[in-house]
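Subject: Bax inhibitor-1/YccA family protein structure
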Amino acid sequence: MRSSSNPAFRNLPGGGTQTYGQYGPPVGFNQPQGGVPGYGPGRAASGEGDRPMTVDDVVVKTGLSLGTALLFGVITAIWAQAQLAETGRLSGALIGAMLGGLIVGLVISLVIIFRQKPSGALTLTYSAAEGLFLGALSGVFEVIYPGIALQAIIGTVGVFIGMLVVYKTGAVKVTPKLTKWIVGAVVGVAILMLFNLISSFAFGFNPLRDGSPLAIAFSILCIGIAAFSFLLDFDQADRMIREGMPSKWAWYTAFGLMTTLVWLYLEILRLLSYLRD
């Protein structure tokens, strides 16, 4: 299976007729028999109790994850705006919700990534935590820049749909060379973010997030990389379907897509705030 820029899709076990590498196949998993894996009739191994994954499984699980994040996000955003309107400042409860969602989401994402196993409960909990964090953050931004949250949501959905169309039409082929470029870009951006974070805490110097022309260019770069990361995510999902992975692995695909969506939304929200200023 080709590598992905998304850590959730790195070193996944294979399925179907593919080789499994050093990790081996999922416990009790055999190649489905009869039909085309992921699209036609087939059966999982005895005792697996799970059929091969399909496109519908990915759509449903991703929709449930996204719906959970939106539900928690909208409720938290409304509450955050009410808190700010009442007190005129960030309350301890609001800051706690924001940091709590961020930390819980980070911890759960690391657990899912290092376990390399699908879990509907963990994926939905991650989505709820990210919804809590993004909702609180969006509520604050909405008070400062009215309408910005809706614009960021529309922008995120637009980029997602656009890259899905690009992938499905084959306008951009996911080749090993493109994969290496995107993975390298993600790693490079992550290193820059880390150094910028350290610089902001140690020296009060925050050139990549201070709203300057450099910060605007960096956000546009991050949005572009996140958009192209969707191509790798879609390709990984397609490969998992073709290889006949059990349907429960659709939760893992949903988690991977959610991590990219969260990153993209944050970068679009930042960019819009810079442009409003």
